[in-house]
Design brief:
- This protein has nine helices and two strands; from the N terminus they run H-H-H-E-H-H-E-H-H-H-H.
- The chain is mainly alpha-helical and 267 residues long.
- The N and C termini lie far apart (40 Å).
């Protein structure tokens, strides 16, 4: 493996030089997309962390739930969950559409026909590479009082709870990897931003909207962003990232629901 090419990869050719008006249009597009999606979530998450830090006591004394119920009426709660899943799907679809309009169809961003065995193997490998150290980082950060106690699911016990959590996992995966990796890095490339600078922007964005969990959540997701983004830049396949992210979330959401009363070491 050529370590140098992984640490400092060359920027691919993205087309003829842009006119000033075209550059301005891309910058405006990126700003709008991020404000509509994860950029605004990042700002909200930062504000939430500041608020939590100003409250009395350690961060670890406070709890944050990732998936919650929105109604005491089961059918209404289910409809709220479906709407949230659809919103995430719409974010991913927006990224795909804008990339397609820019001449980057699904095949060019790594969504060509899935190669089942290698994509699954790479996806599961990435999930293990990120998930196991990520859990350790969370436990350490929580013990040091640098992270809130995260409850992956606080949805009431309905028959549809597990399908909804799996749906969230896939929707989260699609929205984040399409917008934060494929869309953002591709559009920054078109502006002439280097691969390392684009990777850092992507990773910091991913970390920002997880800061509501605490510093551990932010740092862990920056690390995840660096690994996922560089994999995509070098390998050019998005399917493994979608698989890895979905596997991590399914294990967190559904696993917590099944094991929360059996694992005494969980905060």
């Amino acid at each position: 493996m050529d370590v140098k090419s992984w640490l400092n990869p060359p920027s691919p050719t993205t087309g003829p030089p842009l006119e000033p008006s075209e550059r301005r249009a891309i910058k405006i597009e990126i700003a709008i997309v991020l404000l509509v999606t994860f950029g605004l979530s990042g700002l909200s998450s930062m504000l939430s962390l500041v608020e939590d830090a100003l409250l009395a006591g350690s961060l670890s004394d406070q709890t944050v739930a990732l998936n919650t119920s929105s109604s005491s009426l089961g059918i209404i709660d289910l409809l709220y969950q479906v709407l949230r899943i659809l919103r995430l799907c719409a974010w991913g679809a927006l990224g795909l559409y804008l990339l397609w309009r820019a001449g980057l169809g699904p095949k060019l961003i790594g969504l060509a026909k899935p190669r089942v065995r290698p994509d699954l193997l790479h996806g599961v490998g990435l999930a293990a590479l990120i998930g196991i150290p990520g859990l350790a980082l969370y436990l350490v950060a929580n013990a040091l009082g640098l992270n809130l106690t995260v409850v992956p699911s606080a949805i009431d016990d309905h028959w549809w709870r597990v399908p909804a959590l799996v749906g969230y996992a896939f929707a989260n995966s699609g929205a984040e990897e399409i917008i934060v990796v494929a869309y953002l890095i591709s559009r920054l490339r078109r502006l002439g931003v280097s691969e390392n600078a684009s990777l850092l922007a992507s990773a910091l964005l991913r970390g920002s909207y997880h800061l509501y969990q605490g510093l551990g959540g932010g740092i862990g997701n920056v690390a995840m962003g660096l690994v996922f983004g560089r994999y995509w830049q070098k390998i050019g396949r998005l399917w493994p990232l979608l698989i890895a992210h979905a596997v991590i979330d399914i294990i967190a959401f559904v696993g917590y629901t099944a094991l929360k009363n059996q694992l005494s070491w969980l905060p």
